[in-house]
Design goal:
homodimer; Glutaredoxin; Glutathione S-transferase Yfyf (Class Pi), Chain A, domain 2; 2 domains; 10 helices; 4 strands; globular
């Protein structure tokens, strides 16, 4: 139950798409929170205490009770603070939102991250690029309105922030072709609308340092071979 | 919205842990449904129509509206038919149930299936067995009551049906050691309580033909090398 004395914390790091999901949801709900920046190379005791299973960010902490896994956190936030719903109210539309968000995690994010990291196996890399592109194409065909949530942004839009911001970044750094205006005109248009949404816009990380960080990480993959 | 004239179908196959989850949930809710047995070697047009993305079972169809992904289906059933709740009502306990169910999918089921299939890479197989065993150990420490749901079975218990029925089967067929009474006394006790729960008991597939089916599948992995 949310009260006026809520203690709300988010353990995260600028540059994580999963953390960004939670930040957008909190902003949408108008929830004040304390952002605790984690250094993933030197994890804090608080992170190890609150997420002993995965030791990963984001961890959302509400009155000392931790919740991990970004989609689980989004559901928790939506159930705890009822204003500006993130999920639709109809059970069937809720099921579809959960289905597509899981699809984004499993078929778009996981495969594109694999594609980036398989620098020493061209065939495997191509397979992952292809899988990721095909998944983006499937999602493209699901977008019927301005947003996945209709006229307003919702669960799937927030889950898809990785597509709007991180995939173009990955493409610029790696040269991999996953997504463009020609292949996915709906998604491409959506990504611009989404990133320009006032709530989203003020929660996106600054592009230049994130670009530099991921570029350095990508280059390190070759050096370590 | 559920009505008296509901048309409820489940596309599935006897022997699938994911289908079994949905069957237990439907039985728990007292929902009558038509079971449509799929032959996964020759998928029906209905399956391809209702789950064009994954072409997998289970697919739950309520008044001609399909829902895929077993955990998404469980949530849909719980939101549509309110009797005998599967998820707790408290948002924090709901978040924990979702977290642990995802953990079971990602860290126990996925790794144990990988372990079974990496018959030509002993090192990789051992790694997967270890990961799966460690995850079972973590889950073991989370079990504080008779069931994960407390005195009654709930979301995590249903998600964990794979551990109660399929893991012992896999161990008997492959000789892999993932789970036993010594390593995981709580989970072991739970698995017996769970399989003897009247609702669960009448929904479990018959062991012998399932054993024979998985054994044949396992042996084929060696033949094809």
């Amino acid at each position: 139950m949310a009260t006026n004395q809520d203690d709300v914390k988010l353990l995260g790091a600028v540059g994580s798409a999963f953390v960004c999901r939670v930040q957008i949801a909190l902003k949408l709900k108008g929830i004040q929170y304390k952002f605790l920046e984690e250094n993933m190379a030197n994890k804090s005791d608080l992170l190890l205490k609150y997420n002993p299973v995965y030791k990963k960010i984001p961890v959302f902490v509400h009155n000392d009770k931790p919740v991990s896994e970004s989609l689980v956190i989004l559901e928790y936030i939506d159930e705890t603070w009822k204003q500006n719903p993130i999920l639709p109210s109809d059970p069937y539309r809720r099921a579809l939102a959960r289905f597509w968000s899981k699809f984004i995690d499993d078929k778009i994010i996981a495969t594109s991250i694999k594609a980036v990291h398989t620098v020493d196996d061209e065939k495997e890399r191509e397979k992952n690029v292809e899988e990721s592109s095909e998944a983006l194409q499937i999602l493209e065909n699901e977008l019927k309105d301005k947003f996945f949530g209709g006229e307003n942004i919702g669960f799937v839009d927030i889950a898809a922030v990785y597509i709007a911001f991180w995939i173009p970044l990955i493409q610029d750094i790696t040269g991999l072709q996953l997504f463009n205006a020609e292949k996915c005109p709906n998604l491409y248009k959506w990504s611009h609308e989404f990133l320009n949404h006032p709530i989203v816009k003020e929660n996106m990380p600054p592009r230049d340092p994130i670009f530099a960080y991921f570029k350095a990480h990508y280059e390190s993959l070759f050096v370590s071979k």
